[in-house]
Design a protein that fits this description.
EC 2.7.1.180, transferase, T-fold, flavoprotein, 9 helices, transferase activity, FAD:protein FMN transferase
Length: 325
């Protein structure tokens, strides 16, 4: 048996304990959306909570789905060169964050790689043969955030011609944040949201314990279990241990393969955690760790050789004796 390490938030919100009901039940809600499943654990949710969550997720799919041909994103991808497109608030928020992280990561994360995603068989066209160098080069010419012109003041974006957005590396994290914000708006002071493995938690459980989440450690990786207290925090993981090397490096147009199995990022919001986990996986164990340290990201890198924790995540580890799994 191995000891479980505990990662605690940098700060605890005293208001979370002000009206804590130790006898309250935790409602479990769930469904399907965004090509995956969603789950909510909430204390005293409104009766219509499940319907509200489903409605919120449907709205996001209608805007940002790479798979729905009628989505705003798909319409942008088909739009003629030189056309400007007004973006609703959610879409604009995700695009702005995606472009910011693209710049900060040197292009290791990029919201404009839809052509490359489709070329490698990970998009709506379905499985494709392994592309040759000419096909990859052609897709690269119409890819990349540098080709986009975004006007944040007017919340509009220019289609320069042939650029295809793919927000799958960030939209799911935003959806987690959006659902959490929706529930808090409707009076849920304590809850946990999970969509396809990305999570955010706020408040505490009725027992006073935080919302505990165990980071997955794939078989064959030498690393002790790590449990995170999601109290005002979110976590996202990107990895190739299920489907093999499939995370595309936007800079080369080819799947990244640096020997990393998975990268998890703990962040104040799930959207940033989602995008940064993808970027760090692309960058690899050395370059990724340097960037994560520079950006003060709390990240866990897993490879077949072991584990690396960034200083920000190591600082979160509890010094008290851990529980035994």
């Amino acid at each position: 048996m191995m000891s479980v390490r505990i990662a605690l938030p940098p700060a605890i919100d005293p208001a979370a304990f002000a009206a804590l009901d130790p006898y309250a039940a935790v409602a479990a809600l769930g469904g399907e959306a965004m090509g995956t499943t969603w789950r909510v654990l909430a204390v005293h949710p409104p009766a219509e909570a499940a319907a509200l969550v489903a409605w919120r997720l449907e709205k996001l799919v209608a805007e940002m789905s790479h798979w729905a041909s009628a989505s705003l994103l798909s319409r942008f991808n088909r739009a003629p060169a030189g056309s400007w497109h007004a973006l609703p608030a959610d879409f604009a928020h995700v695009v702005a964050a995606g472009m910011r992280i693209a710049r900060a990561s040197g292009g290791a994360f990029d919201p404009a790689i839809g052509a490359l995603v489709d070329l490698h068989g990970y998009g709506p066209p379905g499985p494709q043969p392994v592309p040759d160098e000419a096909a990859v080069a052609a897709a690269l010419t119409v890819s990349g955030h540098a080709r986009l012109s975004y006007d944040p003041a007017a919340r509009r974006m220019l289609q320069p011609g042939g650029v295809a957005l793919d927000l799958s590396g960030i939209a799911k994290g935003h959806a987690v944040d959006a659902v959490a914000a929706l529930l808090r708006h409707h009076g849920v002071a304590h809850g946990l949201v999970e969509i396809g493995g990305e999570l955010a938690g706020w408040g505490v459980q009725p027992s006073g314990e935080p919302w505990w989440v165990d980071l997955e450690t794939p078989a064959g990786v030498a690393a002790a279990p790590l449990r995170v207290a999601l109290h005002g925090l979110a976590v996202a993981t990107s990895g190739d241990y299920v489907r093999g090397a499939h995370t595309i490096d936007p800079r080369t147009g080819r799947p990244a393969d640096h020997g990393l199995v998975a990268v998890s990022v703990v962040h104040a919001d799930a959207m940033s955690a989602d995008a940064w986990a993808s970027a760090l996986l692309v960058l690899g164990p050395e370059e990724g760790a340097r960037l994560a340290a520079r950006e003060r990201l709390a990240a866990r890198f897993l490879s077949r050789d072991g584990e690396h924790l960034t200083p920000a995540l190591a600082a979160m580890l509890d010094d008290q004796p851990s529980v035994t799994a």
